[in-house]
Amino acid sequence: MKKSFLLSVVFGLMGTAVLAGQEKFPVESYEELPQFVKPDAKEWESVKGTRISWGSTHERYAKTSVPMKNLSRLQGISGWRGEKVAAQAVVWSRDGLEELSFEISDFKGPKGQVIPSGQFEAGFVRYVMADEVRKDGNCGSREDRSLFDSTMVADCIDPYLKTAALAPMNTMPVWISCRIPQDIAPGTYKGKVIFKDGERTVGALDLNILADSHVLPEPSQWHFHLDLWQNPYAVARYYQVPVWSREHLEAMRPMMERLASAGQKVITASITHKPWNGQTYDWFESMVTWMKKADGSWAFCFDVFDMWVEFMMSCGIDRQINCYSMVPWSLSFKYFDMTTNTIKSVDSAPGEKAYDEVWTCLLKAFASHLKEKGWFDICTIAMDERPAEVMQKALNVIKKADPDFKVSLAGNYHPEIEDQLYDYCITINENFPEDVLERRRSEGRISTLYTCCAEGYPNTFTLSPLAEATWIPLYAAAKNVDGYLRWAFNSWTREPLLDSRFRTWAAGDTFLIYPGNRSSMRFEKLIEGIQAYEKIRILRNECRNGKDTGKTAQLEDALASLRIADLAETPASIAVDKIMVILKN
Amino acid sequence: MKKSFLLSVVFGLMGTAVLAGQEKFPVESYEELPQFVKPDAKEWESVKGTRISWGSTHERYAKTSVPMKNLSRLQGISGWRGEKVAAQAVVWSRDGLEELSFEISDFKGPKGQVIPSGQFEAGFVRYVMADEVRKDGNCGSREDRSLFDSTMVADCIDPYLKTAALAPMNTMPVWISCRIPQDIAPGTYKGKVIFKDGERTVGALDLNILADSHVLPEPSQWHFHLDLWQNPYAVARYYQVPVWSREHLEAMRPMMERLASAGQKVITASITHKPWNGQTYDWFESMVTWMKKADGSWAFCFDVFDMWVEFMMSCGIDRQINCYSMVPWSLSFKYFDMTTNTIKSVDSAPGEKAYDEVWTCLLKAFASHLKEKGWFDICTIAMDERPAEVMQKALNVIKKADPDFKVSLAGNYHPEIEDQLYDYCITINENFPEDVLERRRSEGRISTLYTCCAEGYPNTFTLSPLAEATWIPLYAAAKNVDGYLRWAFNSWTREPLLDSRFRTWAAGDTFLIYPGNRSSMRFEKLIEGIQAYEKIRILRNECRNGKDTGKTAQLEDALASLRIADLAETPASIAVDKIMVILKN
């Protein structure tokens, strides 16, 4: 599959074309990059007419191959009432179709009850450029495209595309999901998906949805501590709207509501310029305005921060605000110098006079502002991994400014500062000591796991096996931690709909959602895992309350057998399916 | 004298050397650029030993020529008590001197009274690079050095240089000035200047100072409206001190006190970024901080403006504050955008919505601030020449913001807006209609004249005849206007002590004072003219009060005969001397 070079050239041209003359980046409709693996006519020889089948949601079906894996005529999917369930259909044809479309029927269940077709969210699955995941934990540069194979991969679920031309010897997946209403009767709901070419029906697939008697609470009630970092700056750039304008907020709203409905708990706020040194295509600006007055004193304005927090809360994300970062990688803090009307910077490290002075001023002003807003108790001063002595010095400054400030860290496990961290997220390959975890829970502290570029698996890269996204929350349940953090919900690449690769890290590392509020198969599979985590939590509670159906012991056994190392050899789907079967029964 | 090319090369090298490694620009001691006109041995053949003589303050004696003009053994200078008087001595030698120095004695007068030597300000005259004045009024670029002849010219008066080596066949002028104490007895004060080479006395020159019975008031009481624009940014850059730091103010203080003692009335304040489009080597930053808040409203901070005004007032310049500019040449107004933490600009012209909005906000806030400070009545919103309709639109915005705002303009005479201008300065080649001038005076308005690059003569370029600087205030007296404006007191070139040329305009256009608070012969000659203006004013008053000594009619005749056009043929010194003789008698 060494076609990377060719692809880079193709992409290079396309990418340039899209931006020429400052045209808008596509939102509603777009053309994918060309498939560079051409269909093998021999493989397609035996395919008669147009074929339609259910596939598996674990699979990314290749565009130019005949789908083979996990096909079935009848699909039965089950879930708790309130749960979002999904199915994937595939359509393929030797001769192609001019105008493929699909329709979802109403689903009829017991006692004349119906899940109306409007309850479904569905879309053709689109293909995006991705480069291979490196399993060795190396996070380095990917500017030299010849070092990594690239491929077009199914990932984006596109509800805008109502009809699609299917080229000869091509496959078209369709992703169909449905949040089972909480208030319908348990039982089986039967419906179908009808496929058409223009006006002509080319086939239909039956679908049974089994609604369990259990009810999954609203996402806002989920306990799973989901922390996918949001990047408002990427949205402003992609939509070409002024940052923090009304249009900007409008563009973000559906995406952030989607994030809320996945159970997101945390608002990502930047309180310094480039808290992550501009590592993303769209770097983060400070939501706190830093200004130095002519008399040398500091002034801070929180208007943008307030606007962002209030906006996010209006989208349903209102449990926690994590503020990055007192220890940005560059330790250079930009501010507006009112004396010279220029942007300057304080270049100083924790423990140094200039650092401690400006941060003490900022944190005192910030604490007072947060208290006025009633947000002090849900706000944390958030850090990424830094040397322990640097973090300890930063912690000293925080405590001096206000001893009640909460602190977050996403980093390695450091026992010496653990007790100072309210929200502590460690890498998935580490473990909190059991007694620490227990104590943290009893103190109301949050303990979670993260993956980033360093973890070849499990992960949520564009080319990660889809089931790994589901596997992660199950692992969190097994480890008894509170949730999962990933550093990028939407730190988009330049043209994420076309190319999910970035100059660093494996493709897809930087985002889980596409422009136009398009979900990804990865994101949907993560939600599946989060829902399973919630179900396990509820079942564990029922067990503690003596309502055990015998299922819990089975479940705990299956969870206890989850091993990261096993993923090197055994697809995550095996372990995931095993647990899902237990949950279903 | 076509040596420009050579000189540019020499200067190029020197200039670079001075800045290499961010060395400091010289303040206390420095080496001049080399003289490129070599002495003519034949001319010097007849010069025996070291020669010393009084010269004339009208003359710039060449470094490598035998001084010939206006030499005298005894110099008598006269002035009113309180007046600053000056003399110029010249020392020249065929064989050179190793360590030339001079000493000024106490000056003994009637009734045992003394003008102590400490009352004198004196210094060797230094040579600076200058290019020729263009008489055609063309203000264009001088980047092509081959278009203008350059020469080293005597201008800077250097009190730091206590001993000087005089090269063989070189001339060294010495400038000596003295403010005659107001409280000494009228009469003749006799003293001398002794010249030494190391410890050896090489000669002495007698000097008589005749103190008139008249008393010239303190410069702060002078009526002459002197408006030389100050550039604090040039000082910060040259002294390599942070702008508006304590060191910056300390560096400016002696220069601004010198300016105050020349009768300066106006504080030059910049309220926009680059009010003159960065035309000077050091452009002006806004002393008002412009900020736009996240809700779209404007915020202005006047801390720097206040600091500057208070500093200037502490230097003795406190009559007026001129604020530039609502109509800068680029009509682009920079501000700090608090939403994005970036510097942005409003690009809008008078009459447009964005312009009117931001200026109405600024002017209202400014008026309120000025009133709080008690400065509203001495503050003007100041403009340079712009098309009349543009100025009228700006005036409309000013009047809307606060109808009592005073307005200044330095530009052509526009009868249609004249009555809206409190401080109106027109070019020296124009005239206010006599009735307008009279009315303006009766209304307490200020009417002055200016010269800039466009006036070949009279002017104060490094190569302008020195007497022109004196001629200008006399002409103002003749025209019955209130004073004189020049746009640059200290908009220094990169290394003004070495080279007074600039990329535009004739050399010396951009400054009248040198780093280290060194005065120039031009500036001293201007002061001489300003003092004459004050004396004329006082004599006219005396005449009106019946104390006419017969001198006034003579004076008015001489003043009435001043014609700019005559300067093309007849040196200004002739007319100046004629008037000075009348004033003396």
TrEMBL record, chains A, B:
Keyword Manganese included in the entry's annotation: no
Cleaved signal peptide residues: 1-20
Domain Glycoside hydrolase 123 N-terminal residues, every copy: 54-194
Keywords: Signal
Domain Glycoside hydrolase 123 catalytic: start-end pairs: 229-539
Keyword hit for Membrane: no
Database matches in InterPro entries: GH, GH123_cat, Glyco_hydro_123_N_2
A Pfam family per the record: Glyco_hydro_123_N_2
Entry protein name: DUF4091 domain-containing protein
Source species of the chain: Candidatus Cryptobacteroides faecipullorum
